[in-house]
Design a protein that fits this description.
With about 210 residues, this protein is mainly alpha-helical. About 85% of the residues lie in helices and about 0% in strands. The protein has one domain. Helix 1 runs antiparallel to helix 2, helix 1 runs antiparallel to helix 3 and helix 3 packs antiparallel against helix 4.
Length: about 210
């Protein structure tokens, strides 16, 4: 009698622990989904910014080259004809060269090109980890043949992996908020589509 009561108590406790683990994993999955989406949003923003800077660099580089060539061809003539023009040409040439150099330096950590690549990589990593969490949630959590100690160990590994991914580059606040809005709007659209399909499938009443 006592042995049976004890086994029932252990089974109830383990079921409760698995349910708690399930909810924790669902929260982790959602968090990874939002974070991955925010990284992709930031990635798109920095990619567009990098393209604009590259275009601006090309334009200023062309202006700088033209100013440099013009100054070499007729420097003395321009100084004599228009003394104020010479400093302007020098300023344009120097600024364009500096701007072009800064845009194309790969070692600048916070350059749009590097931020674009970093957010894109982190988005992929978060998405991959999200799929791992989803598979773990839908399969092993409810598999009685998998011991609780094994589940706890794998959960700990997932938390560690999540922390490592987040430590590489943080999702930006504005992108995270945008990701939340995007996901909520998508969920609303799906709900409206399901409601519409359900109404269409309902039998017509005479």
């Amino acid at each position: 009698m006592g042995s049976r009561f004890s086994s029932e108590k252990r089974a109830k406790e383990e079921k409760m622990k698995r349910e708690n683990l399930y909810h924790e994993l669902r929260e982790m999955q959602y968090s990874l989904h939002v974070t991955a989406t925010s990284h992709y949003i930031a990635c798109e923003y920095y990619r567009n910014l990098d393209n604009k800077l590259q275009y601006a660099s090309a334009v200023t580089g062309t202006l700088g080259s033209m100013s440099s060539v013009a100054s070499k061809l007729a420097w003395k003539t321009m100084i004599a004809a228009s003394p104020r023009l010479a400093p302007i040409l020098v300023a344009i040439s120097t600024t364009s060269l500096l701007f072009t150099a800064v845009v194309h330096v790969p070692q600048v950590k916070n350059s749009p090109a590097n931020l674009y690549q970093a957010h894109f990589k982190s988005g992929i990593e978060c998405q991959y980890l999200e799929k791992q969490v989803k598979f773990f949630t839908q399969t092993e959590v409810w598999d009685s043949s998998v011991a609780w100690t094994t589940l706890a160990s794998r959960y700990g590994t997932l938390i560690k992996n999540k922390m490592e991914v987040n430590s590489r580059i943080q999702s930006e606040y504005w992108a995270y908020r945008a990701a939340l809005r995007k996901i909520k709007n998508r969920e609303k659209e799906k709900k409206m589509e399901k409601d519409s399909e359900r109404k269409d499938n309902e039998p017509a009443h005479c």
